[in-house]
Write a structure and sequence with these properties.
It is a single chain. This protein is about 45% helix and about 10% strand. By secondary structure, it is of the alpha/beta class. It has a six-stranded mixed sheet, sandwiched between helices. It is globular and about 50 Å long. It starts with a helix and ends in a 34-residue tail after the last helix.
Length: about 270
């Protein structure tokens, strides 16, 4: 079978599910469909795996509409209806809330994202969806790690599987092994109707992330595989060689060179 971008996404999403135990028998998985290339790729990869997987799980898309004037959901809903994919659109007033409560120094896109997550969490808990699938890809994982290291002084990234802050929902990120370039190609192959947010704050997206993305592109050009190595590093932490307060109490033995934490591999 031809290794198209979509087939590549399916394979890597399946690997992530197996490596990290992201989906189990009987799960009800809610995919946060923003209308962008990443969430479209994730939704259709999970839909394909649902047909073939040895475990049975439910799947549906949920879209947050932050305001009628900035987000058009009709193309999205029409495509899902045509493909018989369950979908629910949650109408919100996020733009108005951001306008009213945004404080100086707070990034509006980050504020909006927190509000969206809150609405997703509330809906999932109320409707009995026990897992929420987010479309963060490999580049997001690595960029977040570097952003936290460079600007916050902490080694902190994303997790493929974690309990949400509300302690009620389980967050999964099955695109952990998939690059942004691959999701872009996949969305084109799927002919997905990309729905972009056109709010007035769109131009003020986090410039630090744009800078880190550009820096990583330059590094990757000189060191092929650098982003995959950075992702692998998130699972190969040698605490004894860090400043963690309890590191001195750890055994002196360290993993042999090349030993990797389950699920994180160099590609």
């Amino acid at each position: 079978m031809k290794n198209t971008p979509f087939r590549k996404v399916i394979r890597l999403v399946g690997k992530a599910i197996g490596d990290f135990g992201l989906i189990e028998d009987g799960d009800r998985v809610q995919v946060a469909l923003s209308g962008g290339k990443d969430s479209w790729s994730l939704l259709y990869a999970l839909r394909e795996l649902q047909r073939k997987a040895p475990v049975r799980f439910e799947l549906a898309a949920v879209t947050i509409n932050p305001g009628k004037s900035v987000f058009e959901t009709d193309p999205l809903v029409a495509r899902l209806a045509h493909d018989r994919v369950g979908c629910h659109v949650i109408q919100g007033n996020i733009v108005q809330v951001v306008d009213q409560y945004l404080t100086e120094g707070t990034n509006p896109c980050a504020f909006c994202a927190r509000l969206r997550r809150g609405m997703l969490y509330t809906y999932a808990a109320r409707e009995g969806w026990n897992k929420i699938a987010l479309g963060h890809h490999l580049d997001d994982f690595v960029e977040t790690l570097l952003l936290n290291m460079l600007f916050n002084g902490t080694i902190k990234g994303m997790s493929p599987l974690m309990k949400a802050d509300d302690q009620r929902n389980i967050i999964i990120r099955p695109l952990v092994f998939v690059t942004e370039e691959t999701t872009r190609a996949c969305a084109r192959e799927l002919d997905a109707p990309i729905v972009e947010c056109s709010c007035s704050f769109d131009e003020s997206r986090i410039h630090r992330r744009v800078w880190v993305k550009s820096m990583l592109a330059r590094i990757e050009a000189e060191v092929p595989g650098a982003k995959s190595n950075l992702l692998a590093a998130m699972g190969r932490v040698h605490h004894r060689h860090l400043l963690t307060a309890w590191a001195r109490d750890l055994p002196s033995e360290q993993p042999e060179r090349g030993e990797q934490v389950r699920g994180i591999t160099h590609r």
